[in-house]
Amino acid sequence: MAIWNLGSINADMIYALPHMPQPGETLAADGLEQFLGGKGANMSVAAARAGSHVCHLGAIGPEGAWAVTRMLEYGVDTRHIARLDVPTGHAIIAVDPSGENQIILFPGANRQITEDQVGAALSSASAGDILVMQNETNMQAEAARMGRDLGLKVAYAAAPFNAEAVQAVLPYLDYLFLNEVEAEQLQQATGKTADALGVADVIVTLGSKGARHYDTKAGTMQEVAAHKVTPVDTTGAGDTFTGYVLASLDRGLPMAQALAQANRAAALMVTRKGTADVIPDLKEVQDATF
User: Which residue, 70, 163, 191, 239, is the most exposed by fewest CB within 10 angstroms?
Assistant: First the structure.
């Protein structure tokens, strides 16, 4: 089986700050590092490192070839990434000493993906494969509809959150990933709780408290407690969690084991500074002691 990811590709510029800036404040950074990022690239790398065959659907600009090379090195199939005359997406990420972050995102080429590109890529998919998307590209609803028509299992990570974008893909979803704030925002927009959205499996991440899974077909809910670690940088932890859940399901693990493994991967991730480049591989996750 395979995972098909319609996802963003960004250059993540990470600035270490003594504290988060206040409105109007000029603040000198203590350091700067550049990483491969974007929620899409992060999830593709996480799923590949978790043992799945991952095909990434995305776009870069003229200066973005390094990102494709890096993804290929991490085991991602990059044949469906378009090269465009639009700047590659990038994110300016501020991280304070506690590991909390603030992000400014420039979409660039991520919002220039065409329906023909998506259709050509998914024509190689097989029924039962997984298609995952996030809200950092265009073509989400169109891809979700194609995926459902082709017999794929469709997953959506509702970030950056936009209620209209989520509602546009809801009818096609098998898996929905939200954090606690996004779940509240979606409930305000739809009047429905997470377990009443019509999606078979809804996973709500709870940060340092772990995650909650709603199996709406069985009418059950289970919680997975987070591992106790000292966070260095929380950027990309949710993407790592999502990528690991989907890779585990793709490899045939039951949801409970998928959540447990993803929880371990996310716990390791927050102890590292960076995004896609520092996502742990499966052996690291399995060998980790908390």
Answer: 191
